[in-house]
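Please review the protein record below. Tell me whether the encoded fold seems credible here:
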Amino acid sequence: MVCYQTTVNSSPLEAGFHLRLSNVRFRDNADARLMSAMGAKGDIGKKVRFHYIFAMNKFPKGHMANPDDDPRVNAPGENLAIEWEQEQNSDALWDLLEMAKTDSVTATQSLEKLIEQGSPLAAMYLGSIYCFGRYGIQEDTEAAKRWWRIGSSKGSIEASFCLARQLEIEGDFKNAEREYRKMADRLFSPALYVLGKWHYQGIWFEQSVSKSIAYFEKAEKLGHLRAKHWLAHIFAKEKLGLRYSVRGWIKRIAMMLPFASYSVGYPNSDRLRT
């Protein structure tokens, strides 16, 4: 069974998180803040320095198209960063993900123990390891879904999204919809976007322009740029009247600069996630 494509488990994203954790901001005065963080004291200072060097020079082949990409561009999405910040065992989880590169058997066993201690993010990462067969672990999508379900039950939106995308790939739209709705209820804009697209394209649901607009508008209010794009497209195409046509063109013009900015400067942002 083929797993859906994602960069959620890539080390450069985690490296980007550690830069963020030390108050590096990738979009405002980034270079000045980076130099400040590079001089940080203590354990977090060590991690910032190490992972900055790692992100700049040691991207695992295949994770990123250009190994010399600025780590600011490879920062994690907003929700993933939040889940790392909320993770009570973040240091242990980070160390186990690093260990997995050289001792995957011990690392995966330890990740299971971390999950038993209540770590939802560990379940998300363990599911990704099985889904993609990383670090020499045999690919097992059933195991991946099992761990993602556990992560989802513990509150991880990232685990829920991984699970929903895999179910969608497998054609299990009923259960995928359930996961997307759970995330939509928590106002996760990429899930609202997916439900809007399903309604508009008649995937699983009967096609409904009005319902798709409702979902896209909710996602747009939360900052989702692709939802804004689809709204502009619908308003222009569906002949809803002159007022909607004008709104569509206004949206298209208004989104050009932020869409380009995020696509180049923060491509992993949840505002672009689909």
In short: The chain is about 65% helix and 0% strand. Residues 5-73 have pLDDT under 50 and may be disordered. Residues 242-265 form the longest helix (24 residues).
